[in-house]
Amino acid sequence: MKKVIRMFCRTSLIFLLIHFASFGALAQNASVTVDTARWNGNKDRLVMKGRSDTLNLIFLSDALTGKELATAQADDDGYWIAKVNGLSISPCYVRAVSGGSTAEARVKRTGGNCSSAGLPPDLTASIYTDKLCFLCHGDDGKGIVGSGGDIQGKSAYDTQRAIAEELVHAGIDVTRQELKALTAFLENPTPLQPLETVDFSDPEQCRICHPRQFREWSGNMMAYSALSPTFSALEALGSAFSVSQGGSGFAAGDHPTALFCQSCHNPVDTLLGSFPTLSDSNGHAMRDFATKAGRGGISCDICHQISGPDTSLGFGRLGDGIANTAFVLEPGDTKFGPLDNPEYSPTHTSAHGQDINMQDGYLSSSEFCGTCHDVRIPPDANLTDAVDPVTNEPFQRLENLFTEWKNGPYGPINNTVGGVVTCQDCHMDLGPPEPAGSYAEGETTVYPRPRYVFEREEVSTHYFTGIDIALVDFPDQDNEARDENGNVIGQVQRRQILMESAAEIAVSAPADADSGSTIPITVHVTNSGTGHNLPSGFSQERQVWVELIVSDNNGQTVYESGTLVDTAHPETGETEPDGNLDDEDLRNLVGPNGGSGVIDPLTLEADVIHGPDYNRRHEDPPVYQGLANFGNEFIRIQVDENGEPMRDDQGHFIEEEVLMPFLSTHTDNSFSIPALKTVDVRYDVDVPAGIEGPLQINVRLRARAFPPRFLRALATGRPDLVNEKMVDRNRIVDMVFAVPVKVQIQ
Length: 746
Fold this sequence. Notes:
Helices cover about 20% and strands about 25% of the residues. By secondary structure, it is α+β, with helices and mostly antiparallel strands. The chain folds into three domains: about 5-185, Sandwich (Immunoglobulin-like); about 205-500, no CATH class; about 500-630 and about 670-745, Immunoglobulins (Immunoglobulin-like, Sandwich). Strands 24, 26, 27, 34, 35 and 36 form a six-stranded mixed beta sheet that branches. It has a four-stranded mixed beta sheet with strand order 6-3-2-9, with no helix packed on it. Strands 5-4-7-8 form a four-stranded antiparallel beta sheet. Helix 1 packs across helix 3 and helix 7 (about 230-245) packs across helix 15. Mean pLDDT is about 80; it is low at about 1-30, about 115-180, about 355-360 and about 445-455.
């Protein structure tokens, strides 16, 4: 850790600023550039790349010590590259001289020290700018205050008042761009200007150089995230309910839940300030205010302009860079990627391999995905000091994907598979039936000219397949064609392949039974192919269930669970049964007259009772019958007049399942199956006397992104966004079939 030096002499400070600003001015006007300088301490190798407008020799040296490093020469297109092997220590900065012009660049390092190590703190030689600046310019205690007289007549923007009495300078790394910006600030100390749409590239621009990645992205849920009508309806209804309960909703404004959902689904417009307050929205969904750039959702410039994790504390964030958009986004010309040795791109600067904390492989890590794929929501609608009454955490775990992976057998803590398998290894590889982490080999075009095509050992796909598909018209949802790597293109087809590889199922039953007896049947469900729980993500609205049918020798059903019945749904315009079972609810809960039950448009609660397939295994004593659904649940715990949780005679919370996250006080995530775990589900089936055997047991594991009742609740509350046609598109996926089992009847 470098020693902190406190300076009180404004003359000395300004001298240093002018000195180092001029140090960087050479590069600004030079006809030679150093665009990339990277040292790999593991291989003792320095690689430098740049441009020159002449064919003169380029002399490369350590900018601080003057040590000569190499010479290079630009090609006919004006690009040069130099590699230096066998270095025992890295330069901190390199200098290029050619034809009377000079350019310098900071060396990015993987391991080791640089050439000024052990010298007094040097403005040009350390790597802690961001961390130390954020000590003062953090998220808490901001204000425009005086700088204690160090720079008279000036003020420091967004500085914490408590430490503004003295100028803190740490001998830290200040890049040429930062020095230039600071010098300009001293001359005109105004806040940074707001972001503009031009700060984010249209994915169509990226398509020119990266056509494969664009094609794969354009049909996936990243591209769909800001446009999803189900998301928009849920956000709008949740916002309205929050306000009705004294909260502030999820629209723009100065409150903790402002744009809580949009920050992940549409980070561009969240940063641009495109969204209105709830009162100014006139009932419109937030997506109606999205810009063209924002409508791209999680576009190229979101993932590839994330420079590192945001380790600040915030709602639902514990300072570890996980959950609720815990990333640092730096819009600009620099694009971050996974490669240590990217080829030169004339359209943008490539900052690959390390994040702002000099951590290797951040973009390729599960922690990168964890910035959004753990979601933690308020325990109540008005964001008081409430906690989840079961977990005692100050939030509910809506999505727990990253945490499930981290603590599971594929993560770094409890690993049982011989090595960490990352999110990208399953969702950016070739996909099933290939093993996780199987990547295509081939060429990746980084610029549409033959010179800029190079061989990659691994080619990452950008399909990001999961259980979701678009419920409205969207590119490449149903497409059986295959791409150049042999991958099927359609998201429907990709989802089927992925889900078929996720689980295994088997059935145990006695070989024979007496007429009139009870047969114990056990279904063994194993989460054999996912790196997280099954289901996961928005797991309280996912459905993964067992369909079990026991039939006699004549095909007559003796017992069934997990089956569906075609009914009408007049609440969303389906006045007669339509012959489609995909849009039917499971029969553990039914309306008073059958069907899904009527949704109250104000409370969004369903008028339902226990149905014929109600799960009774939790009763005392347990009855081994009813639906086996592994989806988690939103739970509302009943409270008394003082707001205290109510309990029954056994001390258990009095609770009920609700449809929406904003209606719940607790998320029960205990039903989903952890990775590589097996759950045994028992059924006791009564054999009617005189039945003709043998009995046949047919079992399959089925999945669906949303319960139809949930979608119809959205349609009831926001019919402008969700309708029956979308419910019909919510298709069931048959994950795996068990080998049929026969039981002889004595």
